[in-house]
Design goal:
By secondary structure, the protein is of the alpha+beta class. The chain has 24 helices and eleven strands. The chain has a five-stranded antiparallel beta sheet with strand order 5-9-8-7-6. Helix 4 runs antiparallel to helix 5 and helix 7 crosses helix 10.
């Protein structure tokens, strides 16, 4: 995108917010960089230069605009659409891998040498992995400066900087103001560890299926809908967190977050963005799906549908297994029993959240009576848990989608529905397609589409690479709670005790 100078100039001159995050405009005369929709008078085209990332603009010596806040734009949708090395690397960098494991750790996760990773990132983004991580640290630092009352030394280390000097130099270079001046202008009121921020997205957004799905499938004790917000616990690299996400009429999600260790701030924010699919490009999705005469009325009725993802890949894989061949309510009950028996307790002063979802290692010696499954399904669940605990399955943001599909399909008891459901919601593959799903087949039949998996998959070729979004539109034709924003609180309730296996099998 940034190499198409003429198209970039038109986007800047029209202040087109759809391109925010796709590229950044550097102004040669003022030495600042902006988002395309910056409200100031556009510079002359000869004074514009374009960069694919904020890190590249910063490396070239430009500082962030104080008016349009280019550091607060939605992320580029490219990284969630692609499965190549650069896209996988960007997803892992956003998840904080470099701050935790360095560039060698990033390269090891990707299965490439550090030199190859560095070369490909520089070729496409104009900056190496360290510069990209540094730009992310600068954004995290600004959030902490403006939304918390933490001492600056704690802000520096919480944002991932190794020294106060590096923190001061970076903030001054990127934002043109020292940290103390940024705080003076913002006058934060939040308590230490508590953050109030906005998660921007590209409009339009249809919140009904997004929040409806998360709430209808929520696990008591781990997730809840309270006072118009979706709340859940987060298992993070250095501790845990609790997040509250509320849709608003404006182009952002209101986010209230508490983390036990502020080093997890950036990771927590990006996992919430990932869960709500906030970096998607709804115009591109709707344009392609709307070209199908059958889907066109559905897209026109509810543009901007997102795919609800997850904050934890292994957690969702286990939940998907629990949901095989049972109702949504039964799946929630099974998951709640696991949480009560094996989850990590947490304290939630603002609501009814009680636990973190258990890690695979915590479920290695799972008692069959906990979920009251038939023996074959119990063996399949244990097989998945074992593969996750051993590290045989990569469900991280940087996973290779096709390889993970193959690894899942090789496990006993995992069929096409489970594989594609995990690919859709845990891996966030925008082209995942659950052709064998009952709701999809019923919707297809009602719309006059083929209903057999082979024929429907063949028809869906024109929807690629957005078939996961097509599934959301097909599901929306039914009257299921996943399609509707909740109108009442859905809070934690103690799960019923497990019944005998035979009784559960009969049910």
């Amino acid at each position: 995108m940034y190499e198409d100078t003429e198209r970039c100039v038109r986007a800047v001159q029209s202040k087109d917010a759809r391109f925010d995050g796709w590229f950044f405009t550097a102004v040669l005369t003022t030495r600042i960089y902006c988002r395309p929709s910056c409200p100031v008078v556009p510079p002359k085209p000869r004074n514009m230069s374009f960069y694919p990332s904020a890190a590249a603009a910063q490396q070239a010596g430009f500082r962030a605009c104080k008016r349009c806040r280019p550091d607060a734009t939605p992320g580029s949708p490219e990284w969630n659409e692609r499965a190549d090395l650069v896209a996988r690397a960007m997803r892992l960098i956003k998840d904080g891998v470099i701050d935790r494991d360095g560039v060698p750790g990033l390269a090891a996760r990707l299965g490439y040498s550090t030199r190859q990773v560095e070369r490909q990132l520089r070729a496409e983004l104009g900056a190496g992995p360290l510069a990209l991580a540094r730009a992310q640290r600068a954004q995290a630092a600004r959030l902490l400066i403006e939304t918390s009352t933490l001492p600056m030394a704690e802000v520096a280390f919480a944002a991932g900087f190794s020294s106060i000097r590096s923190f001061n130099d970076t903030v001054l270079m990127v934002f043109g103001l020292p940290p103390t001046e940024l705080r003076r202008r913002s006058q934060p009121q939040a308590a230490a560890g508590s953050l109030a921020l906005r998660l921007p997205y590209r409009q339009p957004l249809c919140p009904d299926n997004l929040f409806g799905h998360l709430v209808a499938t929520s696990v008591p004790g781990v997730e809840e809908w309270r006072s118009g917000a979706f709340r859940r616990t987060l298992r993070l690299p250095h501790g845990h967190g609790i997040v509250e996400l509320r849709p608003t009429p404006a182009a952002y999600i209101d986010c209230r977050m508490t983390v036990s260790d502020l080093r997890d701030l950036t990771t927590a924010i990006n996992r919430c963005r990932w869960m709500l699919d906030l970096d998607a490009d709804p115009d591109a999705v709707d344009e392609q799906l709307g070209a199908d005469p059958v889907l066109e009325p559905l897209v026109r009725k509810n543009p901007g549908r997102r795919v609800p993802h997850t904050v934890d890949g292994p957690e969702f894989a286990i939940r998907a297994m629990l949901g095989q061949q049972v109702s949504t309510a039964a799946a929630r009950t099974h998951a709640a029993r696991l949480v009560t028996a094996h989850g990590t307790p947490v304290t939630d002063p603002g609501g009814g959240l009680t636990h973190l979802f258990p890690e695979p290692a915590d479920l290695a010696e799972l008692d069959p009576a906990t979920v009251a499954f038939p023996k074959k399904r119990q063996a399949a669940l244990n097989g998945l848990i074992g593969a996750l605990a051993r590290g045989d399955l990569d469900l991280s943001p940087g996973s290779d989608w096709q390889r993970t599909r193959a690894d899942l399909a090789a496990l006993p008891g995992i069929g096409p529905w489970t594989v594609e459901t995990i690919a859709m919601r845990a891996l966030a593959d925008p082209d995942a397609f659950t052709a064998t799903d009952l709701g999809v087949k019923l919707a297809a039949g009602a719309l006059g589409l083929p209903t057999t998996p082979v024929a429907l998959t063949r028809h869906s070729a024109s929807w690629r690479p957005w078939r996961a979004y097509a599934v959301q539109h097909l599901w929306a034709t039914g009257d299921h709670p996943i399609n509707h924003m909740p109108t009442a609180d859905v809070v934690a309730a103690p799960p019923a005790p497990a019944r005998a296996t035979a009784a559960a099998t009969a049910t």
